[in-house]
Amino acid sequence: MLDENGTAVAPHGPGDVWFDRTAHMNHYGTKLPFGCVGATGIVQRFVELDGPRAGRSLDVLDASGGYASACLGAGSPVVVPALTRAVEESGYVTDEIASLERARLLKRLFGAGGLWAGRFPAADYHVTGRNSGSEGMELALRLALESRFDRRDLRAAKGREGRDVVLAFEGAWHGWTGGLLPLLNRRHYRIGLPAVAAEPFGFTTEHIPFGEAETAREYFARNGHRVLAVVIEPVQGDAGILIPPPGYLREMARLCRESGALLVADEVLTFAKTGEFFGMTDEEGPIPTDITVLGKSLGMGVLSTSMVVARRSLTVRESGAVATSDLRPITCAVMGAGIEHVHAEGLLERSRTLGEQLGTLLRRDLVDQFPTLYREARGVGVMHGVELTEAAAAHIGAFRERMIRSGVYVEFMAGAGRRSHGLRYVFPTMRVAPPLVVTAAEVESIVERLVDGSRAFRKESL
Ligand SMILES: Cc1ncc(COP(=O)(O)O)c(C=O)c1O
């Protein structure tokens, strides 16, 4: 609702329906006192909902991309026509029928000469789609579990009998759905929720610290024969944007290959954010995986979707992975147009340079200037984290509101918390992950606003 000057006005009387938030389940404990009335590019128009400022509007630079999912920002001139065309022309057949949109997309990505064919040649990999990152990860786990037994007589597959461990990492985040919870090592994510199924064909999870190659080697030397699969985020997101040292991911791939374990890459968050389409990349090129799950940015900010790319030998029992929305024509049209645009415009290459600029500014203007608030800045591409100090972490709610009032939208991640092997505690971390379309000038404005917000927060709360 805008007044004659284009300023958003929020009615907030008790009888008013607009921005009445009572019906929406509160997942957070507290509610941010803002509503969004519209957005263009990376600028979101917010309105204050409560308190003395209610009704005031503010333009906020989006340094989050909707939980890091809107790589092309709002109202993308690429996504809008693709979506419109697909709705008008492409139909809605399910995965049983070979749609033109799906055929086009998969050929462009995985067919001969395709964008991702070097990494995932169609002769070796097959692909399916799910609705969300969590669902994609559930299917990845399912593919790994089903690889252990012969589906015809439901007996253990020869040589896979003893493999009952899924190895995950301290601080990992893969989604909130039941099957994934055992992969998370933090109490808050597990206690009182479904645990791993018992025998037969049960599995256990074990956790090692992320990024410690020597620990991984020692673990595999002792337990490699028991490991069914390793589930890894190429850059740990919820743990606070933890980037592994060079060579670590390739070493994990080697350990898996040599011990007969499957390597599952959770690229739900990292997809198109690290300066590459895939985080499982190093100076040698693609790091081979058995299963890769892509999500978030894959839906270009307008659809919730994910893709599971698995070796052809990995399948589930007959009709065991049927999903109403497996690579529907509209989804494929949006993905295809978005990916093509990212590729043609060189947005990934650009994000590497912008990422360096962003990282430098975050270190120089935040970490160095506000040592009572920030501990460390880490990041690559459009995926950065600024870890809070213990003192600042105690006030995340106020911190976040202050940042929004200073004109920048950021999210906070849990941080890895306590880790084994003497590694230090990782505190909650502010995620600075603007959409890929962010410009150099916007990067500067984001950091300027973070500086303003930090100054005000320090004065008000610490
Ligand atoms: C690494 C990772 N995996 C999986 C998920 C779950 O994805 P979704 O929220 O789409 O279910 C997330 C979401 O934050 C994530 O960051």
Topology:
Elements: E1 34-40, E2 43-48, E3 57-62, H1 65-68, H2 79-90, H3 100-110, E4 125-130, H4 133-146, E5 149-150, E6 155-156, E7 165-169, H5 187-190, E8 204-208, H6 213-223, E9 227-232, H7 248-259, E10 262-267, E11 281-282, E12 285-286, E13 291-294, E14 306-311, H8 329-344, H9 347-367, E15 374-380, E16 383-388, H10 390-393, H11 396-405, E17 408-409, E18 411-413, E19 429-432, H12 440-461
Parallel strand pairs: 3-17, 7-8, 7-9, 9-10, 10-13
Antiparallel strand pairs: 1-2, 2-3, 4-14, 5-6, 11-12, 13-14, 15-16, 16-19, 18-19
Question: In words, what does this structure look like?
Answer:
The chain has helices at residues 65-68, 79-90, 100-110, 133-146, 187-190, 213-223, 248-259, 329-344, 347-367, 390-393, 396-405, 440-461; strands at residues 34-40, 43-48, 57-62, 125-130, 149-150, 155-156, 165-169, 204-208, 227-232, 262-267, 281-282, 285-286, 291-294, 306-311, 374-380, 383-388, 408-409, 411-413, 429-432. The protein is globular. Helix 3 (100-110) runs parallel beside helix 8 (329-344), helix 6 (213-223) runs parallel beside helix 7 (248-259) and helix 11 (396-405) packs across helix 12 (440-461). The strands form 5 sheets. The chain has a 7-stranded mixed β-sheet, sandwiched between helices. The protein has a 4-stranded mixed β-sheet with strand order 1-2-3-17. It has a 4-stranded antiparallel β-sheet with strand order 15-16-19-18. 47% of the residues are buried. The two termini are 36 Å apart. The chain is built from 12 helices and 19 strands. It has 2 domains: 79-344, Aspartate Aminotransferase, domain 2, CATH 3.40.640.10; 347-461, Aspartate Aminotransferase, domain 1. With 462 residues, it is an alpha/beta fold. Helix content is 31%, strand content 19%. The structure holds pyridoxal-5'-phosphate. Pyridoxal-5'-phosphate binds at residues 67, 132-134, 137, 173-175, 233, 237, 266, 268-269, 295.
